[in-house]
């Protein structure tokens, strides 16, 4: 029998299962919602809605990188308990989600990720039914075809970093020296959590907000406006060293900046290497922003 979209949506609202699964179950049940719900429950697809909304502060950052380091993926998969996060079933879910992102390629987007009828949400719904906890996949990062990609996974998968570099030739991409440098930069991002790859990336409104704070701090100083402006610009240096990757002090040698580390590595490797973009994912942060 033909099942209407309205009927499929009704069952989906009741069960939390995907639209295609709801339509298939209604067709199999000859339109009976009770029987269709039973079919979905047997498949482990009807429990997702009951679990939705429960806190997901545990989980893993899944990661994949191509053998030639030209592309890489990080994905955050969250659940309720560390016990579940350590199970083989949860690890399989993470691997399956990574596989779906790889298959989708350029079509993988935020809308694609959140589509209730899409492959990722279908896999999540099945995992919820099997493992009995709420689970979410709030975000992923995919880099492909624009540079050399490096990754660093910290705290057993609780934090994941992905960095893309320009200026890396194919012969250089497999060198141990480059690998050590890439790891150092990725570890810097994991530890110091910068927000921007350069000062130029900082939104103008963010800079103005900082300037306004510094000016307010100097209001009662009695100094001339021109002097205050110079002091404010000087204080911005401290702000840059917190949020801009090249301006940060190196975690290995705080006397040197990350820009110094990059320049030194470029000279040693005989290449003009630069960080073009990076991402730092921490378990639970993406779910909290849903």
What would your notes on this structure say?
This protein is an alpha+beta fold and 290 residues long. Among the domains are: 42 residues, Helicase, Ruva Protein, domain 3 (Orthogonal Bundle), CATH 1.10.8; 156 residues, Tetrahydropterin Synthase, Chain A, CATH 3.30.479. The protein is 50% helix and 17% strand. The chain contains 14 helices and 6 strands. It has a 3-stranded antiparallel sheet. Strands 4-5-6 form a 3-stranded antiparallel sheet, covered by helices on one side. Helix 1 crosses helix 2 and helix 2 packs across helix 3. The longest helix has 19 residues. The two termini are 38 Å apart. The model has no long low-confidence stretch (mean pLDDT 91).
Keywords:
three-stranded antiparallel beta sheet, Tetrahydropterin Synthase, Chain A, elongated, Helicase, Ruva Protein, domain 3, 17% strand, 14 helices, 50% helix, 290 residues, single chain, alpha+beta
């Amino acid at each position: 029998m033909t099942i209407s979209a309205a009927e499929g949506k009704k069952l989906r609202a009741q069960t939390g299962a995907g639209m295609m699964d709801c339509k298939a179950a209604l067709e199999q049940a000859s339109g009976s919602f009770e029987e269709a719900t039973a079919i979905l429950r047997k498949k482990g697809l009807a429990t997702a809605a009951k679990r939705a909304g429960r806190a997901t502060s545990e989980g893993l950052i899944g990661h994949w990188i191509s053998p030639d380091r030209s592309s890489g993926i990080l994905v955050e998969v969250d659940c309720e308990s560390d016990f579940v996060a350590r199970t083989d079933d949860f690890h399989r879910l993470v691997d399956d989600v990574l596989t779906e992102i790889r298959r989708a390629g350029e079509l993988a987007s935020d809308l694609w990720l959140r589509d209730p009828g899409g492959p990722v949400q279908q896999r999540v719904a099945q995992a919820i039914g099997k493992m009995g906890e709420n689970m979410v996949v709030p975000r992923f990062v995919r880099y492909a075809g624009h540079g050399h990609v490096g990754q660093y996974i910290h705290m057993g998968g609780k934090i994941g970093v992905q960095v893309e570099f320009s200026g890396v030739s194919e012969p250089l991409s497999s060198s141990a020296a480059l690998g050590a440098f890439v790891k150092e930069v990725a570890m810097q991002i994991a530890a110091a959590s910068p927000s921007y790859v350069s000062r130029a990336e900082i939104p103008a409104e963010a800079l103005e907000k900082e300037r306004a704070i510094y000016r307010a701090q100097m209001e009662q100083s009695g100094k001339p406006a021109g002097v205050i402006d110079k002091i404010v610009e000087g204080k911005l240096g401290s702000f840059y060293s917190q949020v801009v990757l090249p301006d940060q002090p190196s975690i290995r040698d705080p006397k040197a900046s990350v820009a110094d580390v990059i320049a030194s590595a470029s000279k040693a490797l005989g290449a003009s290497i630069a960080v073009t973009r990076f991402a730092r994912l921490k378990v639970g942060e993406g779910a909290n922003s849903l």
